[in-house]
Amino acid sequence: MTNQIEVPVNPDVVQDQFVIYKKPKTLTDKPLHYCPGCAHGVVHKLLMEVVDEMDIQDKIIGVAPVGCSVFAYDYMNIDMQEAAHGRACAVGTAIKRMMPDKFVFTYQGDGDLAAIGTAETIHAANRGENMLVVFINNAVYGMTSGQMAPTTLPGMATTTSPYGRDVKTMGYPLRMSELLAQLPATYYITRQSVHTAVNVRKTKKALRQALEYQKEGKGFCMVEVVGNCPSNWRMTPLESQKFVEEKMIQYFVLGDVKVPGGK
Asked: For 32-258, CATH number?
C-alpha cells in the first residue's frame, strides 16, 4: 500500500483552467442593440479588454459622436462624453488638454470622421493631439439608412448611390489612414479588421499599442477598423464578412500605415 500525499488545491486556479471567455468588467450588462453580425460589438469588447488589462477604468475618457457609435456610452462602463456630429476630435482635444493625465479616445464612424468631421480630424492630427482615435470604417452611414459615405467603394450601391458609386461624379473613396499618415505630427496609424479570429487579435494588439503610446505622450494615434454593416449592405452576417474579405480590404489594405521610426 502506497502512501498518498494530499496536495491543497486552489479552487480559483482550477476554475480559471476552464474559463474560455470572460466579459470585461468595463462592459455593462446592457444587451447590445447593434444589428446581428455588426463589428461594433466586437470592437467594444476589445477596447474594454484593453482597459481592464491596463487597469485604467478610472483614468480613461471616451468621446462618442452621432452615428451608430453614439450608443457606446451605454456599453462602456467608463467616463464617456457625447459630441456633436463630427466634433469628437475637437471635444477630445479639449478633454485631453484640460486633463492631460487622463487617457482619451474618440470612437467614430466613417460618415462622422471622414465627412462631417473631416476638418476636426485632420487638424487634431496635424496638431499631434495626444489621444487615440478609433475609426470604424464600414463604407456607409449606418444609423441613417445606409447613404453613401466618403469610404463607399467604387461601384458600391447605397441608398444615395443606387446604381453604384460613380467616381467620375462622386469622387474616389477616402483612405483616411494614408491621408493622416502624411502629417508630421501623427505618431501611429494602423488599419485592422475584426472579420476573422486572427484579425480580432491584431486589432486588440493595435488598440493596446496606441494607448501605451498615449501613456508615453507620443501624440496622435489612430486605429482604423474595417468593419461590416450587414443591414445596410443588404447581406447576411456571413455574406458581409465575405464582402469585407473580398472587397473592402482589397481597397483598404490592412496593416500598419505609419509606425514610429517607419514611413
From this structure: 3.40.50.970
| Residue closest to 43 by CA, chosen among 254, 176, 206, 161 | 206
Contact 156, 234 (CB under 8 A): no
Model pTM? Answer: 0.91
Tens place of pLDDT per residue across the chain (263 aa): 556 666 565 666 555 666 777 889 999 999 988 999 999 999 999 999 999 999 999 999 999 999 888 889 999 999 999 999 999 999 999 999 999 999 999 999 999 999 999 999 999 999 999 999 999 999 999 888 889 999 999 999 999 999 999 999 999 999 999 999 999 999 999 999 999 999 999 999 999 999 999 999 999 999 999 999 999 999 999 999 999 999 999 999 999 999 997 65
Q: Considering only CA atoms, which of 121, 42, 112, 47 is closest in space to residue 78?
A: 47
